[in-house]
Amino acid sequence: GGVSNAFYExxxxxxxxxxxxxxxxxxxxxxxxxxxxEYKEYxxxxxxxxxxxxxxxxxxxxxxxxxxxxxxxxASDLK
Length: 79
What we know:
It is a single chain. 0% of the residues lie in helices and 57% in strands. It is mostly beta strands. The model has no long low-confidence stretch (mean pLDDT 90).
């Protein structure tokens, strides 16, 4: 358990950032900030293609280059 806050752009409804506090084991509580940028549309769904996760000493920079949304599914598969 911990506190989590999400921030959205009002005009588009896209998530811009999330901050949360989580258990860091022997390090105690950690504050983790995740930023979502460079949204692109794939199959009618907007996906952030740049994600930066900042957990203090640990930082991860994620780049998404390709997304396949429900590839190979028929409408009847979702009933």
